[in-house]
Amino acid sequence: MQTAEKTTKGKIVSAAWELFYEIGYDDTTVDAIVEKSGTSKGSFYHYFDGKDALLSSLSYLFDEKYEELKDRLTDELSACQKLIFLNHELFLMIDNSISVDLLARLLSSQLTTKGEKHLLDRNRTYYKLLRKIIIEGQQSGELTDAVSANDIVKAYAVFERALLYDWCICEGDYSLSRYSEDMIGRFLNGYLNKS
After folding, report:
1. Which of 74, 87, 108, 112 is the most buried (most CB within 10 A)?
2. What integer pLDDT is reported at residue 55 of this predicted model?
3. Closest by Cα among 103, 91, 80 to 21
4. In this predicted structure, what is the pLDDT of residue 2?
């Protein structure tokens, strides 16, 4: 069960990113975010210093998507199938609801921030879920144990960020989810247990 705090923050984040996508970042106001989220200005400023602070909340939105997808990761799926599924669903969400400009702003904000780099936060659902899947894959013998689970998690996260970065510098001129579908199997092949 979600806490009221998480629900309120989640409503604000979701509303903001919907508006960013629909009308653009520059045309989205705090008032519009508050109205769309059904919250208050007090609540908004309790969680965020201003609209710019929402740029780093994209990782929160991604983690909400991972939370939603967790229940669909059945035992019948191999570790690689789980990773491919998560990647496809998240990148499909980005294709359909996150503009290239907004993703580029998030990535650039992570390059210039002096504070917390949200994309690298190991307490995110993303990293916990990746680690769990990769450890299960190693224990089942599907994935190599010659490389630590932490190193595979890091390589996988770097691989996904590289795809996001490339999509941004190419100005979204291809489907992120389709391109990743082709590339992720090749990437994971390097971590399969060959014995």
Report:
1. 87
2. 73
3. 103
4. 47
Q: Tell me: the pLDDT tens digits for 46-103? A: 988 888 777 777 777 788 889 999 999 999 999 999 999 999 999 999 998 888 887 8
Mean pLDDT of the chain: 87
Distance CA 60, CA 185 (A): 26
Do residues 37 and 7 share a domain? Answer: yes
Domain end call among 14, 32, 48: 48
Phi, psi angles (nearest 5°) of residue 143: -105, 150
pTM for this structure? Answer: 0.79
Q: Is 84 within a domain? A: yes
109 and 130 in a single domain? The answer is: yes
Residues whose CB is less than 8 angstroms from the CB of residue 44 and which lie 6 or more positions away in sequence, other chains included? 12, 30, 33, 34, 37
115 and 19 assigned to the same domain: no
What is the token pair recorded at 59?
């990782």
Helices and strands counted in the chain (H then E): 9, 0
Overall domain count for the chain? 2
Shared-domain flag, residues 66 and 16: no
Backbone angles phi, psi at 99, to 5 degrees: -75, 155
- The CB-side HSE value for 72 (13 A sphere, CA atoms) comes to 12
- For residues 193 and 173, is the Cβ–Cβ distance under 8 A? no
